[in-house]
């Protein structure tokens, strides 16, 4: 099976702009989670989508939003970019089915966002 | 508040030795715990999972233990190799009904010297 893919891999934006990142999960996976990773904060959970519904949400401001499509592909959007938004944004998919699911996360390569 | 702690300082060991990484948690009763490996600039890769009712899990040169009394998991790499150099992350999964939440540690950097 093909792994999780993320586009673009690298992005440079300026403060105040907005950005949309895309994630295609492993075929058959219905759960997609997004994370922000910075050297000082580690992996910070943004949100999780399952079957087009947001299932969990982390403690990020409303400028961070996401959605999931019927084919399980997901996008996240950051509006009014700030310098502190510079980070590696990781998408992870899991099968996420039923109470016995182990939530093993299969990560994509990430999108490196730099805000100038 | 729920908290996970991993060795904050980098671990440097000699090739061939056993590396032991620690994951401690507080105020938490996880359903299970996962260990991941992350190389610079790349996403984490799943290594092992251990459930709350399991004491130990092995996979090739890797071994994970889980002590729910001590609220601690240990991750061992035996016969370490320079290629094992990476950051290792632990993640606990909390189950609340049909909802599940992963809580991540900050990771421990391991350097295996030839």
Record keyword descriptors for this entry:
heterodimer; A: mainly beta; 7-stranded mixed β-sheet; globular; B: 114 residues; mainly beta; 6-stranded mixed β-sheet; 5-stranded antiparallel β-sheet
Chart the SSEs and their pairings.
The complex is a heterodimer of chains A (116) and B (114).
Chain A: E1 5-7, E2 10-13, E3 19-24, E4 31-38, E5 42-50, E6 53-57, E7 64-68, E8 74-78, E9 87-94, E10 106-107, E11 111-115
Parallel strand pairs in A: 2-11
Antiparallel strand pairs in A: 1-3, 3-8, 4-5, 4-9, 5-6, 7-8, 9-10, 9-11
Chain B: E1 3-6, E2 11-14, E3 19-26, E4 32-38, E5 45-51, E6 56-59, E7 62-67, E8 72-77, E9 86-96, E10 99-104, E11 108-113
Parallel strand pairs in B: 2-11
Antiparallel strand pairs in B: 1-3, 3-8, 4-5, 4-9, 6-7, 7-8, 9-10, 9-11
Can you describe what's shown?
The complex is a heterodimer of chains A (116) and B (114). By secondary structure, chain A is mainly beta. Helix content of chain A is 0%, strand content 52%. Chain A is built from no helices and eleven strands. Chain A has strands at 5-7, 10-13, 19-24, 31-38, 42-50, 53-57, 64-68, 74-78, 87-94, 106-107, 111-115. In chain A, the strands form two sheets. In chain A, strands 2, 4, 5, 6, 9, 10 and 11 form a seven-stranded mixed sheet that branches. Chain A has a four-stranded antiparallel sheet with strand order 1-3-8-7, with no helix packed on it. The radius of gyration of chain A is 14 Å and the shape is globular. Chain A starts with a strand and ends with a strand. Chain B has 114 residues and is mainly beta. Chain B has strands at residues 3-6, 11-14, 19-26, 32-38, 45-51, 56-59, 62-67, 72-77, 86-96, 99-104, 108-113. In chain B, the strands form two sheets. In chain B, strands 2, 4, 5, 9, 10 and 11 form a six-stranded mixed sheet that branches. Chain B has a five-stranded antiparallel sheet with strand order 1-3-8-7-6, with no helix packed on it. Chain B is globular, with a radius of gyration of 14 Å. Chain B starts with a strand and ends with a strand. The model of chain B has no long low-confidence stretch (mean pLDDT 90). Classes of the chains: A mainly beta (116), B mainly beta (114). The interface between A and B is medium-sized, with 23 and 23 residues.
């Amino acid at each position: 099976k093909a792994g999780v893919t993320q586009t673009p891999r690298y992005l440079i934006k300026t403060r105040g702009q907005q950005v949309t990142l895309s994630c295609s999960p492993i075929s058959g996976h219905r759960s997609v989670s997004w994370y922000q990773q910075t050297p000082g904060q580690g992996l910070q959970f943004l949100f999780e989508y399952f079957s087009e519904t947001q299932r969990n949400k982390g403690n990020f401001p409303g400028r961070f939003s996401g959605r999931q499509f019927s084919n399980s592909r997901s996008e996240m959007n950051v509006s009014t970019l700030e310098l502190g938004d510079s980070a590696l944004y990781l998408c992870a998919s899991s099968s996420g089915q039923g109470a016995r699911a182990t939530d093993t996360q299969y990560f994509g390569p990430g999108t490196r966002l730099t805000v100038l | 508040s729920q908290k996970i702690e991993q060795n904050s300082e980098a671990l440097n060991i000699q090739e061939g030795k056993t590396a032991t990484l620690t994951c401690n948690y507080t105020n938490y009763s996880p359903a299970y715990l996962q260990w991941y490996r992350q190389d610079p600039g790349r996403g984490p890769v799943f290594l092992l999972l251990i459930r709350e009712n399991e004491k130990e899990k092995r996979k090739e040169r890797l071994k994970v233990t889980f002590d729910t009394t001590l609220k601690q998991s240990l991750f061992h790499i035996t016969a370490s190799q320079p290629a094992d150099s990476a950051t290792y992350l632990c993640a606990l999964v909390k189950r609340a009904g049909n909802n599940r939440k992963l809580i991540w540690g900050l990771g421990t950097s391991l350097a295996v010297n030839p």
